[in-house]
Amino acid sequence: MKPQYFVAILFATSLYWMYLLYAPFLLTITIAALLAVSTSNIQELLSKLFKSRFSAALISSFLMAILFFAPLGYFLATLTIKLNSIDPQVFVGIEVYIRELIKNPPEYLMFIKPYAVDALKDLNVNALTSKAISLTGTIGSFSAGFLKNAFLIIIFYFFAQYNGTNIIEFLKRVVQMSVEETTTLAKELSSVMSVVFYSIIVTAMLEGVLFGVAVSFMGYNGLLFGIMYGFASLIPVVGGVLMWLPFMLYEFSIGDSSSAIFIALYSVIVISIIADTFVKPLIIKEINNRLLKEDDTRINELVIFFAIIAGLATFGFWGMILGPAITAFFLTILKLFEARTKECETKQI
């Protein structure tokens, strides 16, 4: 057996066992690596400021934990507590209100009466209450799992930031690609992920603030529900509805129809239509223009926008990171193929 074949067999065997060893952490490591790529410019800035990669990695990891994971942890923990302490009579009040509304709807809703009556035949408030209780347990277990994964992501993120340069240089030497091609691949992936990360943070904060301010005037916890809306807005199509619809139904159930109509119209018009549909692509475009100075590395903001939506729909919450990364990687590979094709055609001429 030739030595190179023996080395290849050893490599394949070791790769298989490495996969078995780290399979439970692959998604966590991937997310941490992509987040490190997204914030590499912050790491470089902190490294120059503190003259130490260790200090820079430690500070950037702390900032990531505070700015990204702390609000989500607060939201999940508070939501779990609130759901555990919710009064079942709230569901009874909502059911009574909906039945009365269907029985005697206003003139502009008369057309839905035949359909709604049939839909309410099987409505059982006890079943709804038990489902809400089971949902509380599900959210509680999800919260614990998420906090554990968040902790691991921060740990891997720190090591990725601290050793990122060495890892990239090692991969450049190992991968069978030219230095120029590997540099292009790393540069484009880093550029796109930076745009995605900052645009997600900015748009989620914008929509969360808009909703939080509105509900705070209604007497609710604006911080909690603003954070909830910010993360819910990442869910395609139904994200905002998951927040304002329960508010609307609850306000109707307690007889405050003006607040119910206000929160519905405000959420649909100001947040969903203006902020999400029109402002969000503009934010992505502005960040794209500011971060990416070279036209060759820019990716259309609509491509990034739909990559985020596709990622969320396919992979869930972390799809907002994976979707654009996969898209950017694919488009960069296409560019490399295009460059190689042109090079071959030039040589033939």
From TrEMBL:
Protein keywords: Membrane, Transmembrane, Transmembrane helix
Family listed: Belongs to the autoinducer-2 exporter (AI-2E) (TC 2.A.86) family.
Ranges annotated as spanning the membrane: 6-35, 56-77, 139-160, 195-217, 223-247, 259-283, 303-333
Entry membrane topology: Multi-pass membrane protein
A Pfam family matched in the record: AI-2E_transport
Location(s) in or outside the cell: Membrane
Major subcellular location class: membrane
Keyword Membrane in annotation: yes
PANTHER family attached to this UniProt entry: TRANSMEMBRANE PROTEIN, TRANSMEMBRANE PROTEIN 245
Protein name in the entry: Membrane protein containing DUF20
Keyword Transport: no
GO cellular component: membrane
Lineage top rank: taxon: Bacteria
